[in-house]
Structure prediction request, 118 residues.
Amino acid sequence: MFDNKLKKTLLAGLAPLLLTCCAAVYAAPLEDPTRPPGFMGKEGESKADQAPVWIVTSILISGERRIVIVNGQAASEGDMVGDAKVVSISATAVTLRDSLGAFSVKLLPTQIKSARDK
Prediction:
């Protein structure tokens, strides 16, 4: 049906087109299905556009001492963590205040250990 010259011409013309299409598919970023929604922000979004993520990993209340670990940083009431000030620390949450106002971040998990649990 096709002569050899026509086959070679078609292959020579289609090969770069096919390679370009395949390269575009392979170059597309892969999404991690196990990543929590909004964890790293959306592509093209600058750090300034993303809302800060606040994670409380530990709260220590002992006598008059109240220390919280927020985003890996130890802080007491009145200390700054990033752009937020630690307003108060309770057994289950910490209250922070930034330029937008005050907000609470809960300690996870909710299991609280005390001296009576020994």
Summary: Residues 1-30 form one domain.
